[in-house]
Amino acid sequence: MNITPMDLYPDSGAEVAAGMAPMDTQAMATETTLLNPRFYTTDFDEMDKIDVTPVRAEWDKLIAQMKSDPNKGHFKKTDAWDAVDWDGMYPPLKREFIDFLVSSCTAEFSGCVLYKEMKRRGTNADICELFNYMARDEARHAGFINDALREAGVAVNLGFLTKAKKYTYFRPKFIYYATYLSEKIGYARYITIFRHLEANPDQRFHPIFKWFREWCNDEFSHGEAFALLMKTDPKLTESFTNKLWIKFFLTAVYSTMWVRDHARPEFHKALGVEISWYDQEVFRKTSTIARQIFPIELDIDHPRWIPNLERMNRAFLAMDAAKRQGGIAGKLKGWAAGAKAALTFASLYTIPAKRHALPASVRLEPSY
Ligand SMILES: [Fe+2]
Ligand SMILES: [Fe+2]
Fold first, then answer.
1. I need a labelling partner for 115 at 20 to 30 A (CA). Which of 2, 129, 161, 285 fits?
2. Close Cβ partners of 193 (under 8 Å, ≥ 6 residues apart)
3. CB 102 within 8 Å of CB 24
4. How many angstroms is it from 56 CA to the middle of ligand 2?
5. Distance in angstroms (rounded) separating the CA atoms of residues 229 and 224
6. How far apart are CA 168 and CA 174, in angstroms?
7. pTM: predicted TM-score of the whole model, two decimal places
8. Shortest CA distance to 6 belongs to which of 218, 219, 165, 160?
9. How many angstroms separate the alpha carbon of residue 351 from the centre of ligand 1?
10. Is 206 helix (H, G, I), strand (E, B) or coil?
11. CA atoms within 13 Å, Cβ hemisphere of 256
C-alpha cells in the first residue's frame, strides 16, 4: 500500500493557489534555512543491504505491531474537533501557530518522502516493509496537519514541495542518528504537550492537540525501528568517531529546537508553557529514551548548557536582524553573529558527555 498526502488530499494547496493565503505558507515550507525542517536523500543502495538478522526477534515483533496499524482510523476529524475561530485569533498567536503547523507538516512530510523513496528503491523485503509502514504513518501525519492549515485557508501544496524543496544528502549513518533523534524528539514533544493540556484543558486553543497521544506512539515506533537498525551494526554506536558524531547530532538537534521554539513566544504563552522548561523537559525525555542505543548523553544540567543555548538564540536573532538590514553593514554583522553562533556551538559541544553501557535489549515501550 502506498499512500501519499497527494492521494489523500488531492486538492491540497488550492487555497494558496487561489491567492487567499494571508501568509505564504508554501514559501515558508519550501525555504531552506539552518532552522527549517529539511528534506533528505541518502545512499539507498547501502541502506538496502542492511541485514536485520542480529535483531530478528525484536524486529519481527515491531513490524507485526506496525502492520496491525493501531492508528488506522485515528487521523480523521471527529466530534472532538471543535470549531476554530481563526479570524478571532490574536494575530501574533495566529502567525506563530501557523508557523508551528507549517514547520511540523514539513517535518512530517520530509519523513514521508525519505521513507517512501527507500521503499521504492529497495529490494530488501525487511527494509521495504518497514519503510512502507513509516511512509504510511508520516503521510497521515502531514495530511492531518495540512487539514488544519486548510481550515485557516493556508494549506501547503505537498506535491509541489517534493519538487521545489532542496534535498540535503546524508550518508546512511547520519540518517540513522538524525532520524532516530527526530522521531524520539517528536514523541517527546507531542506527549509533553498532550500531558500538559490534559491537566490544563482550558489552554487547549486548538483541537489538533487532542490527537497527539496516539500520534506520538507512531513516532515512538519509528524511533524504535531506527534503534534496531543501528543495533545491527555495533560500530555505529560504539566506535570513537561515531560517538563524536552522535554527540554532534545531539548538540545540533537540541540547540536547533531551542532556537526554533524561542521564536514562538505567543504560541507557548497560549499553551501556558514556559519555553525553556518545555525544551529541557523534551531533552530530558529524549535523552532518557536514547539510552537504549546511544552510549553517551548530553549533560543538560551542566552550568554551561542553558547560558550557551541562550547565547545561541541571541546569535540567531542577530543573524536575522543583520539579514533584514542588508547592505555591507548587514553582511558584516551577519558574519560576526555567525562566528558567535559557531563558537557557542563549540562551547556546547565540549561540555563533557555522560557515558553509560548499552542495554542488551534495545526495545522500549512509550512510558510518558
Ligand atoms: Fe510523524
Ligand atoms: Fe515518524
1. 285
2. 209, 212, 271, 273
3. no
4. 22
5. 9
6. 11
7. 0.90
8. 160
9. 31
10. coil
11. 17
Place of cell 538537534: 253
DSSP letter at 201 equals G
* Count of beta carbons in the 10 Å neighbourhood of residue 70: 12
The C-alpha cell of 290 is what?
A: 536514547
Please give the average pLDDT of every successive group of 10 residues along the chain, which has 368 residues.
Answer: 37 37 77 81 95 96 97 94 93 95 94 95 96 97 95 91 91 95 96 97 96 96 97 95 97 96 97 98 97 97 98 97 96 97 98 92 88
Q: Could you give the CA distance from residue 127 to residue 276 in angstroms, rounded to a whole number?
A: 38
3-state helix, strand, coil in the chain (%, to 5): 70, 5, 30
Going from the C-alpha of 297 to that of each of 7, 133, 278, the distances in angstroms are 41, 29, 19
Give the H or E element holding residue 223.
helix 212-231
d(CA 283, CA 215): 19
* Ligand having the closest approach to the CA of 144: 1
Cell of 112: 514521508
Write the Ramachandran bin of 365: left for phi over 0, alpha for psi from -120 to 50, otherwise beta.
beta
Residue in the structure block whose three cell numbers are 502506498: 2
Cross-strand partners of 40: 168
Contact 197, 203 (CB under 8 A): yes
Nearest to 354 by CA among 297, 314, 279: 297
CA of 134 to the centre of ligand 2 (A): 7
The residue ranges of every structural domain in the chain are 1-233, 235-361
Distance 211 CA to ligand 2 centre (A): 15
